[in-house]
Amino acid sequence: MSGPAELVLLLVVLASFLVLGTARLSTGVRAVAFQGVLLGLVPLLLFPTWSWHRAALAAGTMAIKGVIVPRFLLWAIREAAVRREMEPRLGYVPSLLLGTVVLAVAFALAGRWPVPEGGGTLLVPVAVATVVHGLLVLTASRKAVTQVVGYIMMENGIYLFGLTQAERVPFLVELGVLLDVFVGVFIMGIVVFHINREFDSIKASRLVEGAE
Amino acid sequence: MSWSPLVAFGVTLLVAPALPGVATRTRSFLTGRRGPPVLQLYYEIAKLLRKRAVYSATTTWVFRAGPIVGLAAAVLSACLLPLDGRGALAGFPGDFVLFAGLLALGRFGLILAALDTGSSFEGMGASREAMVGAFAEAGLFLSFTALVMATGQPALTGMLGAPLAAGWSASLPALVMIGVSLFVLLLAEASRVPVDDPATHLELTMIHEVAVLDQSGPDLALVLYGSALRFTLLAALTALVLAPRGALAAPAALVALPMGLLVIAAVVGVVEATMARLRLNRVPQLLVATSALAAFAMILVLARS
Question: A30, A66 in Cβ contact below 8 A?
C-alpha cells in the first residue's frame, strides 16, 4: 500500500479519537469535517490511475462531508442554542479507553474479515474502527447534535468499507454519499424542533403521566 | 568505553537549566514581551546555593531527603539514556523499566517531602503531582513498548540508537505518534503549560510549584535543577525518537544533541504561547489521550510485523 494513503487513513483514526476525547462540540464537528476531507482523498490515493468518475466522487465527498454538512451542523448548533459541550454519557476518559480497545480489536480481526483486499492492510481495520467509534459516539451521546456527529462518523466508516468493494460494485460508494441526505434531514429536525438536549426525555410514559 | 556518551552526559547536565529559559523566552517573545534572560535559572541556582536552607520545625529527614532523591534519580536516569544517539553510560535489557522507575522515584521523593511539611496546600500539590505522574506513566510505558516492538531491542541503547535509525523510515507514522505522545509527557513531567503553569503563583492552581513551596536555599536549587533535568531528559528522549542520530558520526551527533534540545524547548514555548492551561480535571483526559495515541502507535507496529 502506498505511503500517503496509509497516512491519510491514520489521520482518519486520529480524527475519530479527537471526537471521542474533545469536550468542545465545535471541535468535534470540525474533526468530523476534517475526516470527511480525508475520506475524499482516500480513493484518489488508493487508485492512482486517473478517472473522471473517481475525481468527481472525491470532489463530491469533500464538498458534502467536509464543508456542507459540518457548516450546516455548526449553524444548527447556533440556531437551536445547543450547549457547546460534548457531554458523553460515558465520560471522556472511558470513551477514549474504549476507543483504543475497539481499535486494537479491529486491527486484530482485520485479517480474518472475508473481504477482498481492495487497498492494502489498513483500509479494513480503519473502516471497522471508524464504524464502531461512530457507534460509540452515537450511543453515548446525550444530545441530538452529538448523535448526528456519531452518525456521520459511522457513515464515514461505511464509506471506507465501500472502498474495499469499489472496483467490483461500481455505485456502492455513490449510494453511501446518499446517506448524507439523511444526515441533512437529522439536522433540519434539530433546527426545526429546537432539540438542544437529549431525545430520551421524550418518552411515551411521560405523556401518559401528563394526561392523567 | 568510548568518550562520546560521557561528553553527551556532561553536555546534557550543563545545558539542562537553559531549556526552561529558552521555553519561557520563546513564550514571552510570541506574546509580545521580553521575558527573563535565557540563563535566568543558572543565576537563580547560583544565588540559592549561596543561601542557607530554612527548615520548618514540623519536618523530618524525609523533607531534607526529598530534593536529593529527586536530583539523584534524575541524574541516574540520564545515565541510562543514549544521549549521543548511540550509547548510554549504563544499560541492560529492560532498562527502560528502570528509567521510568527512576523518574517515578524522583517524583515520589518530592511528594513525600511535600507531605512531610503537613501543610494542606502542599498536600494538595502532592496529590496532584501523584495524579499527573500516575497518568503519565501509562503513556511512557506504552511508548517504550511500541519502541521495543518497532526495533526488537529490549534496551534503551538499542531502541533509541542505531537500530531505530535503521528502521526509522519504515515505521515513520508510528514513530511520529510516539514522539508526539512523549512530547505531551514532557509537558506533564516538566509541569509546563497545558498541564501546569510554571509562572502561576496561586497555590490553589499550582501543581509542581506548590509541592515544593517549603523548600529553600540549596534544597530549592536542587529541586529547580532536578526539574530542569527531567525536562531535558524527556526532551532528549523525544528528540531521539523523532530524529534518531544513530547513523551520524560521533561529533555530528554530539553537536546535534544540544540543538535538538533547544528546538524542543522552543516548541514547548510555542505551545505555551498558543494554549491556555487546562482545567485540572481535564489533565487526566489529556494524558489518557496521550496514552491512547501511544497505544495506537503500538497497534500499528504490531499490525506491520
Answer: no
